[in-house]
């Protein structure tokens, strides 16, 4: 069931994101990964730069979950830009203790919106409901 919910809540935001992204992006919903063909995107002899960040305790203090997704992408994009690189794609992973579909849709929608603003593709699209997590994301 989670896979079905995942595709439903991610479809509009992720499809919007995939429509504009650079040539070279090869991703589909539900694959939990994606391909990026650097040659098809016009890069010659590239060096890849990667960044990572997490929202951590901001989840407990935040009332607007869509902003968390945007903040997360922005921090990663800024780290990549600071290295003199171009952000090409963002690989997301969303895990929670009790899946609230509205909250997940808001966070992932924020991620997709920020990816669109940054001109990078959204790859991965992985949501996991982990009952063993201590932190519960609530409205």
UniProtKB/TrEMBL annotation:
Domain of life: Eukaryota
InterPro entries xref list: PurM-like_N (IPR016188), PurM-like_N_sf (IPR036921), PurM_cligase (IPR004733)
Residues of the PurM-like N-terminal domain: 48-132
SUPFAM superfamilies: PurM N-terminal domain-like
PANTHER family (UniProt xref): TRIFUNCTIONAL PURINE BIOSYNTHETIC PROTEIN ADENOSINE-3, TRIFUNCTIONAL PURINE BIOSYNTHETIC PROTEIN ADENOSINE-3-RELATED
The protein, known as: PurM-like N-terminal domain-containing protein
């Amino acid at each position: 069931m989670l896979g079905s919910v995942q595709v439903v809540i991610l479809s509009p935001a992720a499809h919007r994101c995939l429509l504009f992204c650079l040539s070279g992006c090869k991703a589909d919903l539900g694959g939990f990964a994606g391909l990026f063909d650097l040659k098809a995107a016009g890069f010659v002899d590239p060096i890849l730069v990667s960044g990572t960040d997490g929202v951590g305790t901001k989840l407990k203090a935040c009332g607007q979950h869509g902003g968390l997704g945007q903040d997360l992408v922005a921090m990663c994009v800024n780290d990549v830009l600071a290295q003199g690189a171009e952000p090409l794609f963002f690989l997301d992973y969303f895990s929670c203790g009790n899946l609230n579909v509205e909250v997940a849709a808001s966070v992932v929608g924020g991620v997709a919106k920020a990816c669109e603003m940054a001109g990078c593709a959204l790859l991965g699209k992985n949501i996991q409901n982990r009952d063993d997590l201590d932190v519960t994301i609530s409205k």
